[in-house]
């Protein structure tokens, strides 16, 4: 059954809250924040003036089909009203509440980090690592994900959901609305309207929400087993929203799977890494037809804006999520009759290509009835982060060194001069302190 995923009617209030206001949120606040209204990605696109190629609601995969659970549902004997008059397959009825007990595991990696830290590159490397890591566990277990052998990660279906690509594909422009296509005067860009200006933050958030909802639609349709949500997710309120959506999916008895969220934070504070990443960004789809000087200048402004809004991940976020989901589980049944709606969650980080050890703050939590496959996948990701420098970081470090120290021809020298002028000590100090 194709389904849509809800967006809380109070999201506008969420996004108007101060950045750190959610860092001390209680579990009850998290539960109350679970989505209660049914708004599809199509509605989201309409709300920000976007159109899709298919306007027929009957043919759209985002057409609402079944309601999501709200905190009201949870507190009122967990009853649900479904207009289809059919119960989920392989389900049982508890207090008038149908729950599929045979839902298998899916995984969502929530990338987190400022622009130009290497998130997208590391996302691809993580998939490469998992595809090449054909590990096996207890063969007496039922093979997950339709794999020929249990825990054969090479057979999983992986997908990266990049919010920037969604923005470029759905917006009526790319990075800007171009009023004057002449770039002869690189100092005159008054004809552009910056999508990344703080005053346009709601539009940017809507693109992220559409991306997340596309991800959830594909998971529920069993098109992907391991999804990576590639966005900055650099504010506490954004991460809170994402985790609420994943919890809402797990709590919906008509969802087909159980999602384990893994936050993967990518940090970069090495000056040459930052310069090199900004240099590479100047050739992406936002800037491929723009002058180099303009591209570097513009992206550096974007990075500075993100940095001013950045909220580091704190353990209280993790603890609040654990407490909230534990409290929700306790509403179901006595311990010997637990309904399996959560498997576990984790937080990992990679700092400066893994040169700096960040494993002291890595966090994992598995619920007592968690099956083996989520534990295995999470531990495999843990191994990836701990060994990242050896696996991929050293090679990238050599590429950066080569860029700054070898084959300095006239064209490269001009680009290095631009980088040194714009990404200077004052700029680096402003984004690193």
CATH architecture: 3-Layer(aba) Sandwich
**CATH superfamily descriptor:** P-loop containing nucleotide triphosphate hydrolases
**Shape annotation:** globular
Tally of domains:
1
How far is the first residue's CA from the last residue's CA?
49 Å
Summarize model confidence as the mean pLDDT: 74
- β-strand amount: 5-15%
Biggest sheet, in brief?
6 strands, mixed
Strands across the major sheet, in which order? 4-5-3-6-7-8
Query: What's the CATH class label?
Result: Alpha Beta
- Radius of gyration over all CA atoms, rounded: 23 Å
Q: How many helix segments?
A: 15
Instruction: Give the SSE string.
Output: HHHHEEEHEHHEHEHHHEEHHHH
User: Which spans have pLDDT < 50 for at least 5 consecutive residues?
Assistant: 1-98, 134-149, 174-193, 334-338
Structural class determined from secondary elements:
alpha/beta
Helix content: 40-55%
CATH topology, anyone?
A: Rossmann fold
- In total, the number of strands is 8
GO biological process, one term: fructose metabolic process
Pfam family, one: 6PF2K
GO molecular function, one term: 6-phosphofructo-2-kinase activity
Region (Disordered): 48-91
